[in-house]
Structure formats: structure tokens, C-alpha cells
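stage 2 :: seqdesign
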């Protein structure tokens, strides 16, 4: 772990109440950043703050990133309080299982509102402040947005949109000194994936498909996010980094070993 790499930086992590978001907050906090975590539930955010490693500076702020006014106000509040913004991690996401003929319009819109609109709103609010600091955005996509997956039509479509929105922002804002990159986890041990991970047959199938034979840990994704946001990645822009245990290298084929 690179102690002090983010000292003096201010980081906003959306969806910071659990899983990858919480792990990302802890990683940046351990590197010396002031980290503002957002989410819809105060109690979950407060628990993440309470459980933070000693010496970390984590702050909880309730905000629904699918609400443009709320997320714009949040970003301005952070800058007013701390004087700067260096990194935005767009992690907030929801998933609704179902194929196109299974999903109703409300379920589709819930996924799009958080997983796509939320990235747009938060990024739009953050960009003026990131220009001032030469900061960066890291979007949390998914391998399901790179190649698709069965029975998750809305989530696949939303994460596919995040993939290409990352590309668009990386092109549009590099000349302004703002880098935009994305990580794409495969199955990760989070609350969102608990239903999948509790099914023995489904997990056996995942282990056959993922060459490393297990889900990712949230901290393993957070490590890559912190790298992409750091000066160590200062010439990395528009990158899509799979954190997938080799799934992409296997072209999704079962592990026959």
C-alpha cells in the first residue's frame, strides 16, 4: 500500500455505503485523502465511517445520484467545505434481473437512473472543479458492460453506456487536464451479489468460467481505482481495466482444467 499518495486530495465516492464503494473510501483514506462517501442511507454510510481504519478522514453525506439537483448540491458543498475536488469515483449502481421481455418500464428506468444518469450528473457537477485541480474521474463499470451477461438486460445496457460515456469524457476533457478511466469488475463479493454467491450451482459455474476460480474482493477493485486516480497513472486516459480474474483472457469459456 502506497502511504501518502493521496495526501491533501479530496475524493468523492458515490455508492460508498458498502462493497466496492466502502473499500475504495478506505483505500483513499489510507493514502491520506479526505474522502466524502455518498449514498441513500445515512445508517450505512455512518457504519462505513465508524469502521474506517485509524487515521483516515471519511465523511458521510446522503445524496441520491439519480437526482441531478441533489448531486450538484453535494459536489458544491464538498468544494465549499474543503476547497477543492481531486477525484470522483462513480460507483453507485443498482441491478434488476430480467430479460427485455421480463422487465417492466419502472425497473428499466430505476437501473438507468442510477447507473447511467447518476454518472452523468455527478461528472457534470464535478468537471469544473476537476479542471481546477487537474483531477480525474474513475467510473465503476462491469464486465457485463463489455460483453453482456444472461438475464440482466437493463444492467448490461447501463454498464455498456458507462463504458462509452467513459470514452467520450476521456476524449472531450483530456485537453482540460482531466483524465477519465474505468474499472470493470467481474463477480465481486458485495451485498449486491449475495443472491448469486449464495447459490451453490451458480457459484460453481462462475468458478469454472473465472480462471482464478473465485469472485473478486472489493479491496482488489479499490486498489485499481486508486491507481487510476493517482499521479502514477498520469498518462492513462480512456482506459478500461478489467478486474476479472482472467475471465476476459478466457473469452468467457469454461475452465476445463
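stage 2 :: out
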Amino acid at each position: 500500500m502506497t502511504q501518502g499518495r493521496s495526501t491533501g486530495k479530496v475524493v468523492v465516492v458515490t455508492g460508498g455505503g458498502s462493497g466496492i464503494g466502502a473499500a475504495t473510501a478506505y483505500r483513499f483514506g489510507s493514502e491520506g485523502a479526505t474522502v466524502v462517501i455518498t449514498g441513500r442511507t445515512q445508517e450505512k454510510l455512518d457504519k462505513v465511517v465508524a469502521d474506517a481504519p485509524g487515521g483516515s478522514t471519511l465523511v458521510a453525506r446522503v445524496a441520491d445520484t439519480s437526482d441531478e439537483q441533489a448531486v450538484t448540491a453535494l459536489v458544491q458543498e464538498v468544494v465549499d467545505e474543503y476547497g477543492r475536488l481531486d477525484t470522483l469515483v462513480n460507483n453507485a449502481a443498482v441491478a434488476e434481473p430480467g430479460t427485455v421481455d421480463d422487465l417492466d418500464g419502472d425497473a428499466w428506468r430505476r437501473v438507468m437512473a442510477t447507473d447511467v444518469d447518476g454518472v452523468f450528473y455527478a461528472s457534470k457537477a464535478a468537471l469544473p472543479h476537476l479542471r481546477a485541480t487537474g483531477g480525474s474521474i474513475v467510473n465503476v463499470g462491469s464486465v457485463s458492460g463489455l460483453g453482456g451477461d444472461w438475464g440482466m438486460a437493463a444492467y448490461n445496457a447501463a454498464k455498456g453506456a458507462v463504458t462509452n460515456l467513459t470514452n467520450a469524457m476521456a476524449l472531450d476533457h483530456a485537453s482540460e487536464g482531466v483524465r477519465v478511466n474505468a474499472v470493470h469488475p467481474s463477480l465481486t463479493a458485495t451485498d449486491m451479489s449475495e443472491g448469486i454467491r449464495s447459490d451453490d450451482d451458480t457459484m460453481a459455474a462462475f468458478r469454472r468460467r473465472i480462471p482464478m476460480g473465485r469472485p473478486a474482493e472489493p479491496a482488489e477493485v479499490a486498489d485499481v481505482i486508486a491507481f487510476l486516480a493517482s499521479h502514477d497513472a498520469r498518462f492513462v486516459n480512456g482506459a478500461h481495466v478489467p478486474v476479472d480474474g482472467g475471465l476476459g483472457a478466457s473469452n468467457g469459456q469454461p475452465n476445463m482444467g
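stage 3 :: structure notes
- Residues 105-133 form the longest helix (29 residues).
- The CA atoms of residues 183 and 246 lie 14 Å apart.
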